[in-house]
TrEMBL record:
Major enzyme class: transferase
Similarity annotation: Belongs to the class-IV pyridoxal-phosphate-dependent aminotransferase family.
Protein name: D-alanine aminotransferase
Gene name of the record: dat
InterPro entries, sorted: Aminotrans_IV, Aminotransferase-like, BCAT-like_C, BCAT-like_N, Class-IV_PLP-Dep_Aminotrnsfr, D_amino_transT
One Pfam family, short name: Aminotran_4
Signal peptide per UniProt: none
């Protein structure tokens, strides 16, 4: 397996990062996960633009243009002969003696690697279970930061409850999953949290929005509550790894009769059509 480090493709065993890299010590960095279907990245440009934006929000200067990065990532996918899976990449603020304040004149550390993973076919077909959990994260969830402790604690609670995902909420308002966005369907309208500082504006979420608009499926970005989830016609997750996954049970209460809903299935199909 090959990886990218310092702008070069090297054997994974030869890639090292200093123990005082700020990503390792502080989670001081940003990342992206892009899906690879049949050897090609899906919505690469959108992910790379978001990576740039996340970096800018924390004053990390990425030394590559999105098009340059895309070429480097393509090179790695080819080198590893990856046909279906993901490519992960992160930029940290770099290596520097530990100090909370930003260092001067330090180059960001760039790392990327690929992993072969299958599409989540069975959960997409059968649906998954979820729990509710207090959203205890910070107020800049729009940044795709390496600091994921809040997300990890939420996901772990879900796993311990025998569920797939944790639906986070601030007060009564549902924000997003631990590593996915959440949407409900009510009377034919798809409703999801507005893209503000409280959620990551998922690329898959934006794809869902786009295919809804193209296919005259009503789509609204507005707040919805825990009660709305429990009384929704359908509930689904969207994300790079989960694609569009139906939620068929929340806190042991069945949603849409415990089977994936029609709108959710339609959206899965419409997004599938784009992956060619
Ligand atoms: N997570 N919200 C959060 C908190 C996420 O971590 C993710 C993705 C999403 C969905 O975003 P997108 O559609 O752009 O993948 C929403 C990635 C896949 C991860 O951390 O593995």
């Amino acid at each position: 397996e090959y990886v990218i480090i310092g702008g070069e493709i090297v054997d994974r065993g030869h890639a090292t990062v200093d123990i005082e890299d700020r990503g390792y010590q502080f989670g001081d960095g940003v990342y992206e996960v892009i899906r690879v279907y049949n050897g090609k990245m899906f919505t690469a440009r959108e992910h790379l633009i978001r990576l740039q934006e996340s970096a800018e929000k924390i004053s990390i200067q990425i030394p590559y243009q999105p098009t340059e990065l895309e070429e480097m990532l393509k090179g790695l996918i080819d080198k590893n002969n990856l046909s279906n899976g993901i490519i992960y990449m992160q930029f940290t603020r770099g290596e520097s003696p530990r100090n909370h304040a930003f260092p001067h004149n330090v180059a960001p550390t760039f790392v990327a690697y690929t992993r072969k993973v299958d599409r989540p076919v069975s959960s997409m077909q059968e649906g998954v279970k979820a729990i509710f959990i207090d959203d205890i994260r910070w107020l800049r969830c729009d940044i795709k930061s390496l600091n994921l402790l809040g997300n990890l604690l939420a996901k772990q609670k879900a796993v311990e409850a025998g569920c797939f995902e944790a639906i986070q909420h601030r007060g009564d308002i549902v924000t997003e999953g631990s590593s996915s966005n959440v949407a409900i369907v009510k009377n034919g309208t798809v409703i999801t949290h507005p893209a503000n500082n409280l959620i990551l504006n998922g690329i898959t979420r934006q794809k869902v929005k786009q295919v809804c608009e193209q296919n005259k499926i009503p789509f609204e970005e507005k707040e919805f509550t825990i009660e709305d989830v429990l009384h929704a016609d359908e509930v689904f997750l969207s994300g790079t790894t989960v694609e569009v996954t139906p939620i068929v049970e929340v806190e042991e209460k069945k949603i849409s009769g415990g089977t994936p809903g029609q709108v959710t299935k339609k959206l899965q199909q419409l997004i599938m059509d784009e992956i060619v």
